[in-house]
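[09:14] KT: can someone run the structure on this one? pasting the chain below
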Amino acid sequence: MSPDRQSDEPTSAKPGERPAVIVISSHVARGSVGIRAAGFALEARGHPVWTVPTVSLPYHPGHGRSTRIVPDPEQFRQFLDDLASSPWINEVAAVLTGYMADAAQAEAVAGFVTRLKQENSSLICLCDPVIGDAGGLYVSTEVALTIRDRLLPLADIATPNLFELAWLVAGDMDAPADLPRAAQMARNLPSPATIVTSAPAFMRGNIASLYCDGGQALAAEHRRIDGAPSGTGDLFSALFLSHTLAGTEPPRALERAAASTFEVIAQSVRAGSDELIAERCIGSLQRPMAMVTMRSLAAAETAPRPA
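[09:31] RB: done, structure tokens below
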């Protein structure tokens, strides 16, 4: 199946307009991770983006040690309060949360999202629980637990990677080895919908994004590309959220987000870049052409296991 080439219009804004999204995550001066990746993808698709940096860095930590600027906890909380009280807050249709530098930030963001949801019951919260990868946790256990216990229960959509899924559900460092087990674990998260990124695929040499909600489990597969730069999870989360805000049904939103992400990765690797070059891939963000294989998993094999 291939993504629809036609642009999709939001159902929650005037024709031709897209609603604003608040992105709360890390910020780098150079590169395309965190806010730089998610915010750019949303803006490329027409969304005004409000940014809340949880930490500022000169470049991604994977490139080497660098200076970290973390906001004072009380100032960070007041910053969020000011946004929530602003006269423009009704422009916002969604909040995307990513990397948290400390547990106090996660607590403050939980309070912020709770307040916005009380004032706007249709607000969507997408939580990308950025806590670790195959090498283990890269935030403190306290931060990871606060994201699990305070942010995930507020999320309408969660987008953990395979390692994060295992840690959040079972406190386990061993990621599930197949899609049915990943789907079982995903359904134990509190969010109504979960997308597991970098999931195992049915076909050798492929990688999948696995969508699970109360009624379906779907996998979007495409070829695995070695040497992908950091930021792919941030990019994918923003793209799926944008399609959701446009009223796109989950299977098509999953397919489109996966296709766009694949195209950006492929072009970045082909260019020999150590960062995603999303700025050169506007067409891929708006109307991807890549073929993505969609598969449906049987309900019986993805049901949660008894506790």
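[09:33] KT: thanks! The longest helix spans residues 250-270.
[09:34] RB: yep, looked fine to me
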